[in-house]
Every structure is written in C-alpha cells, then in structure tokens.
Amino acid sequence: MSRLRLVVDPVACEAYGYCTELLPELIGVDEWGYPIVSGDPLPEHLVALAREAARQCPRRALALRPTP
Amino acid sequence: MPTATDTRVEPLLASWRAAQRRDLATHLAHHGPLSLGDPTWLTRMTKAVDEAGLTGRGGAGFPSAVKHRAARGAAVAPVVVVNAMEGEPASQKDAVLLTCVPHLVLDGAQVAAALVGASAIVACVAADQDVLADALAGAVAERAGTGWSPVPVQLARPPGRYVAGEESALVDWLELGRGAPRFRPDKAVPLRIGRQPAMVHNAETLAHLALIARRGPGAFRGAGTEHAPGTTLVTISGGVEHPGVYEVSAGTPLQEIIALARPGITPAAVLVGGYGGTWIAARHLDVPFAAGPLRALGAGPGAGVLVVLPAGACGLADTARIASYMAGQSAGQCGPCVFGLPAIASDLAALADGRADMALPERLRRRLGLVAGRGACRHPDGVARMVASALEVFADDVALHLAGRTCPGRAHPSVVLW
Question: What contacts A67, CB < 8 A, 6 or more positions away?
C-alpha cells in the first residue's frame, strides 16, 4: 500500500465523471453521478493511474493526499 | 422558568435572574471586575482553561484550551470570531445570552483575545436578528472609552441561513462576503481571514470563559461531571408547557432536564442536539446529558437543543418536516448534499404520508450512507444521522406506515418550530 489516498473536493466537483471512467477500481459513482472514494491508502500499482485521473479532472476536484 | 425553590446552579444567567437588567453596571456589580492586565495573568489563565476542561458549546465540543494553543503560536495576530449565529431553528441560547448577559459574552471575547494575542474581535449575529444585534451593539457601545474593551469589537451580520454559522462559512462571509462552508481536507490548518488566523468561539463558550477568568477552574467544575464539567445551556421545545432556555449542570439525566420544561404528556422520544441531531427513545431518557454517555446512543449534546415529541405524535411526520427544511438549507455547493438531501426528504415524506413502496426503506438507507461525509461541511452528515435515528427509534411506526395504515399521529400538532 502507498501512503496516499484519494480526496474529492465536493465543492469543486461537478460530476463530469472522468475519474470514475478512468479508475473504476477505486472510484464509485452515486445515483446522482458524483464520485465515491474510500479514503483508504491507494495500492501501489494504482498510484500512477490515480495521478492521471486527478490530472484529467476538468474541475481539479480530485487529489492525492497523504494518509493521516 | 425557575421558581424561588429552584436550587439549580446558574452562573451564566444569575445576574439576569437577580436584576433582570443587562447593562454594564449591573453586570459588574454582580460579577465584579475582570483583570486582564497583570503580567502573570496569561500563564495563570491558560492553566485555568486547561484545568477547567472547557469545551466548545456550539456543537463540536472541541477543547477550548487546544483551540487557544493552536491560535497563540501564529506569526500574525489572530481575530476572535464570536459565533452568535444560532442557525438552529430550535436553539435559543445565543438569543438568551445576547438579550440577558451580553457583557458576559463580550468579557469572554476579551479573555479569548488576550489569551491568543488577538488584534480584533468580530461578533457575528444573523442578518435577520436585529433585536439581538441591537442588544449586543448596545453593550459594545456602553464599553466604549471604559477600558473594558481593550481589543476593538466589530459587529458583523452574516445571512441567517442554517449553515451560515458553520465556522468555515462564517470566515468565508467575513473574508469574501459569501458565507458558504469551505472544503477543508486538513482540519488542523487554521481558518484565516486574509492573513490573520480566525479563532471562532460560540457565544456560550465565551460566557463560560468570562466566568472561569473571574472564579477559576474550580468553580466551573463545581457543576457538571469529571468528563463533562460546568453548566450548559439547553433549549427545550416541542411537547412541553414551558419551552425555553435552561442552564443545567452537564451530565444531568435527560429526563430531569426535560422535567424543568414540564412535558404535559409523557415524551415518546426526544430529538437531541439539533435538527442534525439524534432521536432518543423514551426508554433511554435516563441518559446523562454529556458527550460520553450520549455517544453510546449515537448522539451528542450538539448546541444543547432538545425537541420533545409527545406520545401520540408521529415521529416520522416531524422527521420528514425537519428533513425537508434541512434539504432547503443546503448551501448548494456539494452534489451529494444538493441532490441527496431532497431525495432523502422526499422518501421520508412518502413514508410519513403512507404512500411508500416496499423498495423505499432500502433505498432510503442507501441514500443516508451516500450523503454522510461527502460535503464540505457536516450538514449532510447531520441529516443522515437524524433520519437514521428516526428509522430506528420509530421502527414500529415505519412498519405501520409501510403497511399503509392510517397514522393517528399525523393529526397531532408538529413539534417543529420554524
């Protein structure tokens, strides 16, 4: 496991859905189209993909942050 | 209201009870002067707040001493923000404090400012509360040129919406004039107004601070329990003969507190903490009103709100009304809150009206799980908690409503206030 987790800024997020498309292994979606992330540490092999998903977010709402 | 035989300790409201006046002279005659100047004061007072174990009375219950320590180390002088917004419709304690003992709140703000080296105090009263703002402004004006206002006090009037009193929303109003909660992934990072750290204190917390500064931690601990020291203000409403604000010893059993307001009919349940609080069933009303014991029931003291549901009323109907109100109070920023709360409110309305389909309970529970923890502030979490507790406490009613039976409680007057 890495020492990073996914964090969604709920104010910035507008449910574009890119992150869910790019990283379905880690990002779920609710009935209104908004992403659901767990806050658990990211598995090492998905960190690069998670960074890419964060980069692709049109609202810059997805970020990788250190686990507390 | 308390009678002559009432033996409760009411340090916060005592001066008002005795004189029914809120002016500076009455205040000083009752409480005596407040010393902030002496060189050993800072050390002594810091220790006193620690020993008193004062916790925030706005809802979060955060230790005041920790809050002061965090603000004190700042490179730029902090601002003390007095939170008297009282966005909870069922809460009246800030109103009582500003109306009856505004100088205690202002003293507390000065104490807090001295503790952290603040350069300014901003007192926030909701824009739709002119009477309260006038009471506070009058007290501020009385102090002008007296030496009782070493740190200047400004009055701010943020909008009177439910979430506008959330601390990051307050700061957002003071800094940018918006009043929307901010996304704070790391709560340890202090809120700032420009470059200045903002230390937000609930009005009641400051009033306690003013008394600790005068009487010391021992007197504060003279009421309450070891883990929940001091007195606390509660607002009792709903099915009681004497709704209002009462000052009680923390840790007093809930039923004894409610008895002060004379419940006419045996309570069926009590909503504890606020509209984002927790329903507690009648059989648990022996629980001490303090964070620890309440936590075991999934509840917390919140801002001291107690809404009594009388036997015979329909808890689901009132829960639906509250959920609908809370959905309307979203700041409109976060998707799960914007879409989730109305969806939850509409499920509850269907359930309360007896027009629920069999898929509703599962859908509603799923939705409750979808909104909690997914907003910038805790507004959706509160709604989810309140509704989840209703489904548990009113489980028998849920079954009856699902079976399409006519609910006699629907005709009962609502306990909801707004």
Answer: A3, A4, A5, A41
pLDDT given for residue B190 in this prediction: 87
Q: CA of B161, closest CA in chain A: separation in Å?
A: 18
**In angstroms, what separates the C-alpha of B276 from chain A's closest C-alpha?**
20
Q: To the nearest whole angstrom, how far is the Cα of B238 from the nearest Cα of chain A?
A: 35
Using an 8 Å CB-CB cutoff, list chain A residues near B365: none
Here the tokens at position B93 are 């304690």
Q: Does B404 touch chain A (CB under 8 A)?
A: no
pLDDT at B8: 61
- Check residue B417 and give its pLDDT: 62
Q: Which residue carries 């000052």 as its tokens?
A: B247
DSSP at B253: B
Locate the chain A residue with the closest alpha carbon to B180.
A11
**Cα(B101)–Cα(B17) distance, rounded to whole angstroms?**
10
Give the distance between the most distant pair of CA atoms in chain B.
Answer: 71
Q: Is the CB of A11 less than 8 angstroms away from the CB of B339? A: no
3-state secondary structure of B297: coil
Give the tens place of pLDDT for each residue, A14-57.
999 999 999 999 999 999 999 999 989 999 999 999 999 999 99
Residue B51 Ramachandran class (φ > 0 left, ψ -120 to 50 alpha, else beta): alpha
Among residues B315, B318, B373, B314, which one has the least CA distance to residue B340?
B373
List CB contacts of B165: < 8 A, sequence separation 6 or more. B58, B83, B85, B86, B87, B124, B126, B158
For chain B (length 418 residues), average pLDDT per consecutive 10?
Answer: 50 92 95 86 94 93 90 91 96 97 98 96 97 97 92 96 94 95 89 95 98 95 94 96 96 96 90 97 96 96 95 92 96 97 97 91 96 95 97 94 80 73
Q: Could you give the ipTM of this predicted complex?
A: 0.94
Residues of A with CB under 8 A from a CB of B: 7-15, 30-34, 36, 63, 65
Residue B1 is predicted with a pLDDT of 41
| CB contact (8 A) between residue B334 and residue A15 | no
> Would you call A9 and B333 a contact, using CB atoms and an 8 Å cutoff?
no
- State the DSSP code for B242: S
Which tokens belong to B324?
């609908």
Residues of A in contact with B339 (CB under 8 A): 32, 34
Cα separation, B408 vs B404, whole angstroms: 12
pLDDT at B145: 85
Dihedral over Cα of B8, B257, B234, B168: its sign: positive
